[in-house]
């Protein structure tokens, strides 16, 4: 029998393929990586470890398979990227390639790149095991298209020299939270993605795409809200899935949910969290104000996948029901507000604050670097008395530090979750211990300290914590605009502007003016800030729409809040890494500006009085001379007195604060 390079076991199935697959998947707990079905054959691949697979090829006609080979494992190398297939024609080969791509398997280009190079064609007599042009046994490391590819460790080890057997593999240990079924891998490709299936809800039957994991409620929402194409971000979806996972675990512990059903829900929810069903959350942001359509989208995807895990067939409401089981003890009215808080706090702690700290530290570093660079100060965009460049950057650093404190102050409100309130805040149809136990699990999984709200009616009727958080985000955005605009002005030029600092040159600035370089990063961050400010207005209006016991602008509040956090996280990090760290001071330009400034007359006031100092400044302006030149020409002060007055070291920077020397 032919050795199939890349599959460490080959099983030829002539009986009921579905029963065989269910046995290997459900009872042995192997991960199904791909299912490829065609009119002539079916191929199934199970993952044993990272690089090892067992393949099932369905051969409907048992008489054409030699008896000695029937169902007998074949030993061979173990390298997933060196798979060989048996196909009847080039058309079948490309059909396999297309099906891999449809299944979102990472080997979609292996054929093109030569990593699947051992291809066989049936001989004219159509005998499946005897191939006409086998190339089995070719050393993959010597294959011309593989010369730069590093083979897997297992493939390099080869068979045991004494026994001739290839290294044994061990089955992965199931996740402790997966009570019944281990994780299952990628969504399977369908024979025809254009086919539909029938799904039912309380309004009747509706066609749902065969390759979709969602059901009737989601399909109705897709058809009802073709508005923007905007959908919830991954952090929101993953937070919602975490609620479903923890709810299933707790409902099982409370005796409200069968162990098998709970286990399948937990496994499915974890797959959502792992990002394996991102393309299944399709409801537009502009939908029912409670977010019910998105909650049902989640309920249906998890139920559908759980049913597939248990029965081998996705969709439907049995044995796992999207409402009775996945949504048990919950309502959209407490789940969606809770998800908003969870996703926002997760993003703030995991992305925003670290990005702001990076920015704050980079500004503080520049404050120290520039602490002895004296420059002209400016008020009303007009010359003022000198300061140190380090003092300006110290001020920017402090603005960001205060922004961090402001956003940290919102954590207390976001930590309160509405779970347990169900429909109107009264806790109808949920166990009295459900909320606190689910929230405890959520805290454990997220490593964040969530707690049940003190008043469920407040938590569902209002969105004050989201409004407060958005306000803090807006304040940070305002600070960033001030900082970025200052940097743009200070770096203006290079010949005819202020030119007191230089920022990194990142890209050509003009399609018509050669050599022009623009402050692209500060400009990008200013636009980020503008979006955040606009989002805050939307969130403010959304917060006003808490009509009696339910806010009815939850989806748009959620979307804009997540976007603001995400944009500021990326913008702050970008500003620090691509702009602030590369700023240099133009010391000569700074000193020239001080020498030319009329504001230097301010230092004469203690010696000659305000009025005479003003006359000196006026004469310097009229003649184009410096304050120094006018004072010396009119012999108002000696050169020694003037130098002490205008250029004494009477200002310094310490910890970003302005202080006068004694």
Kindly list the characteristics that best describe this protein.
662 residues, alpha+beta, Fumarase C, Chain B, domain 1, Fumarase C, Chain A, domain 2, 4 domains, four-stranded mixed β-sheet, two-stranded parallel sheet, 46% helix, elongated, disordered N terminus, disordered C terminus
What does this structure look like?
The protein has 662 residues and is of the alpha+beta class. It has 4 domains: 9-157, no CATH class; 214-328, Fumarase/aspartase (N-terminal domain) (Fumarase C, Chain B, domain 1, Orthogonal Bundle), CATH 1.10.275.10; 336-481 and 507-587, Fumarase C, Chain A, domain 2 (Up-down Bundle), CATH 1.20.200.10; 597-660, Fumarase/aspartase (C-terminal domain) (Ribonucleotide Reductase Protein R1, domain 1, Orthogonal Bundle). The protein is 46% helix and 11% strand. A 4-stranded mixed sheet has the order 1-4-3-2, with helices on both faces. The longest helix has 38 residues, at 332-369. The model is unreliable at 1-15, 33-41, 47-54, 59-160, 163-193 and 651-662 (pLDDT under 50).
